Amino acid sequence: MIHSVFAAATEWVSPQVDYHALAPEIVLAAGLCVVLLADLFLDESRKWIISSLAGFTLLGAMLPVLTLGLNEASVRSLFDGRYVVDEFSIVMKAMFLIAGYVVVLLSTKHVEEDEYWQGEYWFLLLSSILGMVMMTSSRDLVSIFVALEFLSIPAYMLAAWRKRDIKSNEAGMKYFLLGVFASAVMLYGMSLLFGAADSTLLVDLGKSVTATGEFSAIHALGIVFVIVGFAFKVSAVPFHSWAPDTYEGAPSPITAFLSVASKAAGFVALVTLLLVAFPQASGVWQPFMWVLSALTMTVGNVVALRQTNIVRMMAYSSISQGGFVLMPLAVAGMSEVSSSALRSVVVYMLVYAATNLGMFAVIIAVSRKTRSGEISSWGGLFSYAPGLATLATIFLASLAGIPPLGGWIGKFTAFQSLLSSGTNWGYALALIGAVNSVVAFGYYGTIMREMWMKPVPDGDTTRVVVPGSLALALGLTCVATLVLGVLPGVATHFGDIARITGAFGG
């Protein structure tokens, strides 16, 4: 019997693996191992080397991303279409790696001066970034969920990095509990979708809808549950309750990381699911996106007006900015505006990443002197740190969408998508967005007024010492914010080339 089984067995064929397509992930995985080994064998006085290793790992992963972008083969499909490297994934991989490198620059001095262990920090940070890079290419429910947990679990631990800080413990615990709950809801939605389509491939999910020309109640319920899960990840209202406390309690570099890279990864997964798996089910998710966008913008801005702590204010600002990213998705299901909607999401995420990371770099630099997170502690900043005050003004004005800074092109493309839809509800959401843009300038202007017009609260006008790594982060983000605003074609170019294979039913 055993002989017959072996006789019937077909000859094993080695699978074809495109190692060039997987090179960014391989480099990151190798970097993780190097960081762990370095932490084991390096003396405490030489642990600073680990931060350099983390930075070089991210820069090294950028090299295959660049070669993939320059390669003529625009689409590389692996594992039966479950992992795809296309123009969209390449642009997003580059954004995550660059954002991760900036976070390393923000963290270097912060971690060295901290009293907690260093090696684990860099390992967890690189692990989370690896999950984000994997997310960009995932085209299967299983790979999406695995990538999501790969980026989320290290983030839970990083939020609670200050083990003897009550606020940090609260931040990590709240983030973990609500994150696990959201993952469970999302997983249940994915199970419903799998049951309806008998496949986890996103393209097969789309075919299961178009096969009959209509979607069932199971499809609709599954889509809603998945959206709710990702709404938590991007801190959309009313699933945002974790963000303010987590942002305030987590180490400042991790707060910057969560507000930019982690949020962007959630948007990448959400966009991929909606536009690849369910472009034909837009009647379900478009109204949901409309409500989420309007609520997120409005609640985030209104609550931000009442904040006195700058990190909590930036948390609600991040929530509000997420509402602007959601705006194009409210019309993305319409074939005539689908491409412009995707472009606007990509452009907005690129601009927001540069601007928000820059603002958090300023916050870290100022807090090194003031030792306070209160907005009032920024009084008279221009009198003793004019460079930081100028940079903060640039970043805040960009977040408010004031030309010629980067934020204006992000908001312009988002509004353009809504107006090009030619629908009343598109116009209504654009009006809500315009009002919120004006409201947002209220709390951004509060910080500017403190820096430029108010006296120094304690009379201490000693110079702010900015470490070299932090200065480099400030320079990179400032240049990116200015270039993307003054030369908007750069941002829109990346938005135009970021096409998702299989999106819009194609």
Structural class: mainly alpha
Please report the total strand number as a whole number: 2
Which quaternary structure do these chains form?
single chain
Integer average pLDDT: 86
- Widest beta sheet: strand line-up: 1-2
In percent, how much strand structure appears in the residues?
Answer: under 5%
Structural Rg: 23 Å
What string, H for helix and E for strand, traces the elements in order?
Answer: HHHEEHHHHHHHHHHHHHHHHH
Using the alpha-carbon principal axes, give the shape. Answer: globular
Number of separate helices:
20
Q: How many strands, what sense, and barrel or not for the largest sheet?
A: 2 strands, antiparallel
Percentage of residues in helical conformation:
over 70%
> Which regions are unreliable across 5 or more consecutive residues at pLDDT < 50?
none
Count of separate structural domains: 1
What does this structure look like?
There is one protein chain. The mean pLDDT is 86. This protein has helices at 2-8, 23-41, 48-70, 87-113, 119-137, 141-159, 166-197, 202-210, 217-233, 242-249, 252-277, 282-304, 310-326, 338-370, 381-384, 386-399, 407-420, 424-453, 468-486, 488-497, and strands spanning 76-78, 83-85. Helix 7 packs antiparallel against helix 9 (217-233), helix 11 packs antiparallel against helix 14 and helix 16 (386-399) crosses helix 19 (468-486). The chain has one domain (17-505). The chain is built from 20 helices and two strands. The chain is an all-alpha fold and 506 residues long.
